[in-house]
Amino acid sequence: MRSALTLRNIVTAALVIGLVLLPLYVALTGDRFVLILFTRIVILAMAAVSLNLILGYAGMMSFGHAAFLGLGGYTTAILSFEGVHSGFLQWPAAIAVSALFALAVGALSLRTRGVYFIMITLAFAQMAYYMASGMARYGGDDGLSLESRSTFAGLLNLSNKTTFYYVCLALLLGTILLVWRLTNSRFGMVLQGVRSNESRMSAIGYPTFRYKLTAFVIAGTLCGLAGALIANHTDFVSPSMMFWTRSGDLIVMVVLGGMGTLFGPVFGALALLFLEQFLPTLINMAVRPFNPAGAAKAGEYWQLVLGPLLLFIVLFARGGIDGLLKKLGGKHSSHE
Amino acid sequence: MSKRKTDPILQVENLQKRFGGIIATDDLSLNVAAGELHAIIGPNGAGKTTLIAQLSGQFKPDSGRIYFAGDDITALAPYKRSSLGLARSFQITSLFLDLSVLDNVALAVQAHAGHSFHFWKNARKEDALRIPARAALERAGLIGRADWPAAALSHGEHRQLELAMALAGEPRMLLLDEPMAGLGPEESARMVAMLRALKAELTILLVEHDMEAVFALADRITVLVYGRVIASGTPNEIRANAQVREAYLGEAEVAHV
Ligand SMILES: Nc1ncnc2c1ncn2[C@@H]1O[C@H](COP(=O)(O)OP(=O)(O)O)[C@@H](O)[C@H]1O
Ligand SMILES: [Mg+2]
Question: A204, B111: Cβ pair inside 8 Å?
Fold first, then answer.
């Protein structure tokens, strides 16, 4: 047996405990902003975990995963607009729409590989983006506001920010549990075989297409549910949530956190959203002593810093943050 | 599938395969008796790999028939042949390099265990997969490396792993395409010993360049030249065959073996 007390496990456990106890900190300090930021992190982490199932474990470089955030979000918002407020209807509908879209996209794209697969998934996501822009009844380019958050027959009040945070966290942890079981099952072994050497999998008798399609649908469905959460979080949906850069963000979260690792995408989502949030301020502060006038402007160029930073991590810390924790902890795991 | 007489486990009748102008398999007929180790030899380009590819289902012959254990398998998909008990190991190794050695073999076992739509149980702890996988590694002499990543093995060990994966489905017959190619003398000797042990348990069709190994192992030898069978017989008959000496075996080489 390998020791459970590795640096990686300790940090992962600390992360989960920290996420569970976060509302306590918010209650003590009254810092609502932190709760809102972390709700967003938790939801996008769920989307990244779902992408990791196909990207990290099965090697499918889907470049359109944000489409499912949009589909889940729009399904929720449109039902709300049409007077259906119950989450018991909205959320299953979000799941069903995402599953159907995933089935269609997967069926048409999964026979291709490499660049073709990337381009087809991207094309479908852009199609969803333009379709949302074209729905005049639902706000077109301007997007659509939710009149109210999803209701659950008085069982849950999602307008309570703490309640909503815990709902999101529970769904994230549920998603992680599911992915953990899936990836260690026979099904998951097939996915990892496909990632490693798909033609050999076919040669020894696996009809790889159905397994890939199943994984693609599961991932899309989970991400669609995250979309329903995002719509409730921002009380608003717009086509931009499906734009290809959003899909790129999800890929960055997975790669940055560690492809094919259970908690990697959570680390990745946390890191990326923190950088997005605080890098402008940090740059501003760093430039101020030298050029007070240009400091505010410099802060706007935070993406110029983020790019090389990500490149650095991908090049020098293969396996992302999770891989880094494993490497750093490797020498000290003496509790064998 | 029509049933044929079952004594020769593999029957090939008038097989023909062209690649453009090249006739890679030319009216080839061949019987392999159950339990024998049948070697196929012949110069480069004689059509040995093409024959194996047709037997395993990777290539479709232009005409002719292939029977395995009495069943006509001429048009059967490769994995269906392997589920009937006809397994192939590849000339170029094609493994799951980032998975462990045991996972590689377990995936081969799982391929024979019906569909893999099992979503919850931990496959790495399933005896139904792990026990046969370990047994196959044992037979291929690789059990000591079970937990290594496949990428960390030597060239010879990759060959052994290929063999273990072929054995994982409990086949009745193995198709081996140059298992000794690129191995050092020590690794070759180990492979010969392994094949000798396997030969007692199953039928083997062996394509091999290493004449010493072929004459040491084979019960029967078939010689191919330009896709045609020019001779077929016991090692002694082949050694004595004038046509074979002329067309293929250097006189000196025959004298050695
Ligand atoms: N896929 C292919 N396409 C075209 N020609 C091929 C192909 N495979 C083999 N050949 C040709 O068929 C002949 C037999 O090749 P091969 O079966 O590989 O011979 P061997 O294994 O005995 O060295 C050669 O002339 C080779 O060039
Ligand atoms: Mg060959």
Answer: yes
Q: Count how many domains chain B has.
A: 2
Residues B71, B191 share a domain? yes
Q: Do both B218 and B183 map to the same domain?
A: yes
Grouped pLDDT means (10 residues each) for chain A, 336 residues = 79 97 95 95 98 97 97 98 96 98 96 91 96 95 94 92 97 98 98 94 90 98 98 97 95 94 97 89 84 77 81 80 87 41
Contact status of B110 with chain A (Cβ, < 8 Å):
yes
Q: Which residues of B touch A190 (CB under 8 A)?
A: 107, 110, 116
Are B74 and B181 contained in the same domain? Answer: yes
Residue-range definition of the domain harbouring residue B153: 91-170
Q: Reply yes or no on domain A7-335 having CATH 1.10.3470.
A: yes
The response to whether residue B47 sits with its C-beta less than 6 Å from ligand 1 reads yes
A188 reaches B (C-beta below 8 A)? yes
**Would the ipTM clear 0.90, i.e. be above it?**
no
Question: Chain B partners of A214 at a C-beta cutoff of 8 Å?
Answer: 117
The Cα–Cα gap between A320 and A259 comes to 7
| pTM exceeds 0.95 | no
How far B241 CA lies from chain A's nearest CA (Å)?
38
Q: In terms of domains, do B111 and B32 share one?
A: no
